[in-house]
Structure formats: structure tokens, C-alpha cells
Design goal:
One of its GO terms (molecular function) is carnitine transmembrane transporter activity. It comes from Ureibacillus massiliensis 4400831 = CIP 108448 = CCUG 49529. InterPro entries: ABC_Gly_betaine_transp_sub-bd. The chain is an alpha+beta fold. The N terminus is likely disordered. The protein has two domains: about 100 residues, Glycine betaine-binding periplasmic protein, domain 2 (D-Maltodextrin-Binding Protein, domain 2, 3-Layer(aba) Sandwich), CATH 3.40.190; about 160 residues, Dipeptide-binding Protein, domain 3 (Roll).
Length: about 300
């Protein structure tokens, strides 16, 4: 073999080894970068963004943190519904990770592409009903209002349409527009009742938009029937206390059997349960759809 040919082979082998070496370096560097990249749990600082301290959903989230071994070291950052929604909006605008305590029906599911994380242990419970409760003696004192409250029932689509509209206009206007656009449903609720002349009635509610929508619709219906209606927003435990002690007449806001279940058990002997006014509600941990996670069990404990 001549020297020129030998030099060519040697040069080619050297280049191949050099390229191979570079490839290994790049691969090693990439592996190091991937190892250094924080996990989703680390990026979230092992924190779930919650709502009001007194909300049933807050206690459910705390119970969930206890139920899952892989959530050891995680914390619930209690805030408010407004604060939680602001944090969610900021995260989505920047396409950052976030986990919130969430519920449906709620307008956020129409405004954003969100998903519930699977809850294999059922810590958040199953399907929820929104219930109507009344004080003892309401049926005797206001039989027509009692009958309307007892008959009232609607669907997820109804309440969601009002809450969506209320992002552009006031909740009062959105509810009034819905009542005017749905006379058949309203007539079903008031069938067999008579109008009254200025009878006072107080409805107690929680400050969630869905419950505001429900209460505002009932406000419109009862006002049309001649009642002077007062709407009083309070924390859930106060809501049950108010109905149990007769300081409030009725509420269309309790979520059962899970969200407000502990309050219901405490006061069920002092209230009248009129049954669900809406079915199909849900609670859980909610994330933007762009997050690569599907189950609570996909999260890692804090080391």
C-alpha cells in the first residue's frame, strides 16, 4: 500500500473518531441537561393553588393530599376564587404549569382548555349534586315560594350559559335575560302557585359564580311572583347555620354529597332537604390541557 493511500485512510479514521467523540459529548451534554431539568412537581414547587379557606373544596383538597402517598410534602396555597382564577389566567398566558382546586360547572372550562386530573382513590368523591335546602316552617309560612323552590331544577348547560354571559355583562342582567328566554322552564317551576303581595324571603348562597347565577335566576322568578327577595352571600358553614337557625329562608347552593357533606351532616336535623336542583357537578385537581399529566398519581413527593 502506498503512503498516500495510507495517509488517506488514517485521516478518514481520525475524522470519524473525532465526529464520534463530538456525538458522544453532545449526547452526554443532552443527558446532563435533561437530568438538570426540574420535574413538573419541582416546577410547581409542590404547590396547589386553592380557593377560600372556608370552602368545602379546600377541605377536600387537604384530604386528597393526605390520601395520596406521592403527595407527601405538597402544600395547598389557600387564596380566594378570584385569586385562584387570576393565577390560572397568568399561568395560561405564559404557558406555565399550574394545578388548581377546581369544580364544574364553572365558566373557566369554557374560557380555557382545561382537564381534571384522574383521581384513582376517589378522594374528591364522585358526581356532585347542587341541593336546595330550606328552614323548618317555610312550607307553612310561604307555601307558594316553597313549592317553587321544591320544583326548581335545571341543567348544566343552563347555568353555564348564564355564567358565561356574566363575563361580559352583570350577573343580574345575565340571569334576567335567561329567565326571559326560557319561559317554558320558568312556567314549570311556578305551575300551581299563586302570586303574593310583597312577602319577604331571604336566599342564602355561597359566593361562587354558579351559585350566584342560580340565586339570581330564582330572585327574578320570585320577584315576578310578588316577593321581596334578599340574596345573602356567605361562607358555606354560615349558609347552613343560617338555614338551621331560621335566619335565612332557603339556599340553592349546597354541593352534596361531598363538598359540603360535613356541614350537611352537622345541620341536617335542623333543615329541610328539598333534593337536587342540578346534577352532574364535579370537584378535583384541574390543570391546563397543555400540561403533560393525566392523573394525581403522576405527581412526585417532595424529597
Amino acid at each position: 500500500m502506498n503512503n498516500l493511500k495510507l495517509k488517506g485512510i488514517t485521516l478518514g479514521l481520525s475524522i470519524s473518531l473525532l465526529l464520534a467523540g463530538c456525538g458522544n459529548d453532545e449526547s452526554a451534554q443532552q443527558n446532563v441537561q435533561e437530568d438538570e431539568k426540574p420535574s413538573l412537581s419541582e416546577a410547581l414547587d409542590y404547590t396547589i393553588t386553592g380557593v377560600e379557606p372556608g370552602a368545602g373544596l379546600t377541605q377536600l383538597t387537604k384530604d386528597t393530599l393526605e390520601a395520596y402517598d406521592n403527595l407527601e410534602g405538597w402544600e395547598l396555597e389557600e387564596s380566594s376564587t378570584v385569586g385562584m382564577l387570576a393565577a390560572l389566567d397568568d399561568a395560561i398566558k405564559n404557558e406555565e404549569p399550574i394545578i388548581i382546586s377546581g369544580w364544574s360547572p364553572h365558566w373557566k372550562f369554557a374560557a380555557y382548555d382545561l382537564k381534571f386530573l384522574e383521581d384513582p382513590k376517589g378522594a374528591f368523591g364522585g358526581v356532585e349534586n347542587i341541593q336546595t335546602i330550606a328552614r323548618k316552617g317555610l312550607e307553612e309560612d310561604m307555601p307558594n315560594a316553597y313549592k317553587i323552590l321544591d320544583t326548581f331544577h335545571w341543567e348544566l348547560e343552563d347555568i353555564e350559559s348564564i355564567v358565561l354571559a356574566a363575563q361580559e355583562i352583570s350577573m343580574e342582567e345575565a340571569a334576567k335575560n335567561w329567565v326571559e328566554a326560557n319561559p317554558e322552564k320558568v312556567n314549570e317551576w311556578i305551575e300551581g302557585t299563586e302570586k303574593v303581595d310583597g312577602k319577604d324571603i331571604e336566599l342564602v348562597l355561597t359566593p361562587w359564580d354558579t351559585e350566584r347565577a342560580t340565586a339570581q335566576v330564582m330572585y327574578e322568578v320570585l320577584v315576578q311572583q310578588g316577593y321581596n327577595v334578599t340574596l345573602t352571600p356567605v361562607d358555606p358553614v354560615i349558609m347552613f347555620q343560617a338555614i338551621a337557625t331560621g335566619k335565612g329562608d332557603a339556599s340553592l347552593a349546597p354541593w352534596l354529597p361531598t363538598t359540603h357533606g360535613s356541614f350537611y351532616e352537622e345541620y341536617k336535623e335542623e333543615i329541610v332537604d328539598l333534593g337536587p336542583n342540578l346534577t352532574g357537578g364535579k370537584n378535583g385537581l384541574v390543570v391546563p390541557a397543555y400540561m403533560d399529566i393525566d392523573s394525581i398519581e403522576d405527581l412526585q413527593p417532595k424529597e
